[in-house]
User: Fold this.
Amino acid sequence: MYELSVSRLIDAAPGKVWQVLTEQTNAWWCPKPWRAEVNWGSRTAGGKTHTTMFGPNGEKNEHPGFILAWEEGRRIAVTDAIEGDLQPSGPFMLGIWEIAAEEINGKGGTRYTGRARHWTPESMAHHKEMGFDEGWGIMADQFKALCEAG
Assistant:
């Protein structure tokens, strides 16, 4: 498997973490100064999703996708390998965002893991060279901060 991943232990209950993951996505999805507009669509496996990323210099990147899994309170998986009405697309990755209850200092917390799975070692290496570790790391830190805020 050709996978890159980030993980954070979050000092917040899984319900709150899931709410931030699915309802406040635009606030953490891109490393600032970039911003994103994420539309999760129907929030069911087989549904369409669409993300638009906006850069500080007017850049605009469109990312249509297909929801492979939507397991409420646990996991979301999407791919860019399918678009529209089940049309194949040039795949880049399969993205998976998972949460699981995990104890922190004797109280409830949550483990967040973001995964990017690739079809080939070359596409994984390309994603790493594009700055996966830094970019997804910043996103995970932004996500953690939102989850742990008041």
Remarks:
- The first strand starts at residue 2 and ends at 10.
- The chain has a mean pLDDT of 93.
- Residues 6 and 137 are 6 Å apart (CA to CA).
